[in-house]
Amino acid sequence: MMVKKYFAAMLAIxxxxxxxxxxxxxxxxxxxxAAKSGPAVVNIGTERKASGNSQDDMMGDMFRNLPPGFDKFxxxxxxxxxxKRPQMKQKSLGSGFLVSSDGYIVTNNHVxxxxxxxxxxxxxxxxxxxxxxxxxxxxxxxxxxALLKIDTKKPLPFLAFGxxxxxxxxxxLLAIGNPFGxxxxxxxxxxxxxxxxxxxxxxxxxLQTDASINPGNSGGPLLNMAGQVIGINTAIIAxxxxxxxxxxxxxxxxxxxxxxxxxxxxxxxxxxxxxxxEENTAKALGLKEATGALVGSVMEGEPASKAGMKDGDIILSxxxxxxxxxxxxxxxxxxxxxxxxxxxxxxxxxxxxxxAVTLGERKSSQSADHGDKNQAQKNEGLLGISVxxxxxxxxxxxxxxxxxxxxxxDVNPDKPAxxxxxxxxxxxxKANLKPVRTAADLSKIVNDEGAKRGAIMLQISRRxxxxxxxxxxxx
Length: 475
Known about the structure:
Number of helices: 12
Low-confidence stretches: 11-22, 51-85, 365-380
Largest sheet: 7 strands, antiparallel
Radius of gyration: 29 Å
Structural class: alpha+beta
Strand content: 25-35%
Mean pLDDT: 80
Distance between the termini: 75 Å
Number of strands: 28
Shape: elongated
Strand order of the largest sheet: 5-4-1-2-3-7-6
């Protein structure tokens, strides 16, 4: 009896502590926000005609990548084996939200891509729903955004975009959507991070949230506590929990406005290959911190080339806005209008240089022969590689001019070059931005400048692409 009383008392204390904790942390009440914003969120269903020749067509996305042998099952129960199955309709579900009272709806491009039929289910004030046909106004694959339009005889509730740049990590957020077809599901969480690059596309700049997002939430709104859309829910990590991603509203609003106005989606372009700046690269070039975007190569005749940009420049800012990394540069330039001018500050030869670039418009080989190792000259002292000059045929094939370039024949796996991901077949074009034509040229730069700074930056050509690799040298 005493044991039961003890556990009952402890349970009562636990409940009391939990209630006091909830009051102490002052958790927000989302009920008013959900009730006010919910009617502007819609369920989007699509249909696409399928040929009926594969199990993908037969069952749609839900049953893709089935184990070998399952096709026999479908042969027995779904049609004649080896024959053409009846034409089927693939269906999919997603979310969206109204952005105007006259029926414009924002969603993800992947929700409606290749759809033959698009239907939008509206939430009526009387608690009933209404499914209406929708037409695709336009879409942008690179940012995964789409704009739909439905006909309406009365004004519809809609949501307004907020300023995603003003968001702070830790703010409360609300997601509304149709996960697994469960319409108007509301989940809450916080902003976990900003500027996430999940390698989904060229302009990745996602908001990360721990508000529960599942298949079917795609295209739905992510709201701040003022009821403004600050993100469009787009992606999840299937193996994770509480990790969802949304397109920032500031990026989405610009694209949606262009689509709505019937304008072509255009993006700025300067014509360079770029990569992030590593700490050793910054050290090799005398830069105090690893920031900016390193120019791997400048395309001849493109805006950057015309403005005097050079291989090895580090782009630090555009129109006074600091550039943190290569992704930031890509987004910044792409957001500008082709034909406009941009002031770009670069780090070159130990100092900053300003370039005036007139932007263009962005439009969406075999490795070198390893050769005979007996002809290669080693530079084992610091780098740990064997190199030889390029032949005229190799130079022509790789489009390398000026008689420069040393092909790497062998890499010592225990030396710094291997740690920097240098590989046989790579062609070294420059060392610390100085052309190299012979092994002696390379050795001199490595032993003089590299040994002094503790690192050497090599410009290499690999399968027709130009990169920089910074090698930390042994003392």
